[in-house]
Model the fold of this input.
Amino acid sequence: MKRTLIKTIALSSLLTCSAAAMAGGSDYKLMVIETATAPQPLEQSFNSCALNVKSKNYEQAEAICTKAIALLKESRESKLKVRELTSYALSNRGVSRMMAKNDAAGLSDLYEAAQIADSAMVSHNLTRAKEYLSL
Done:
């Protein structure tokens, strides 16, 4: 029981401490997860995705964001938290795809992210992508 409680506290801390980072040279915003504890696979995926976008490694960023989405499908967190984080992961992947000039896939991710959860950051990224594409 003690181990489960510690794991629950650690996951709650991990999943609630988050911030947005600007995508390298654009005004898109990326989700990163900040925590004082050792990085977990989900945290590593989010942060590595953002780092790769900022470093213009878009193909690698897309793959890592896809991994984060897969990890969320297996998550035992609350459905609300999983929906929110899935929305952010889709938004991150959408940004990486937009930056890689894969506009259709990027826009699709951003629309899906906006449908999953209401987020100012996701809405900002979707608006930015539509402006870029003159939609």
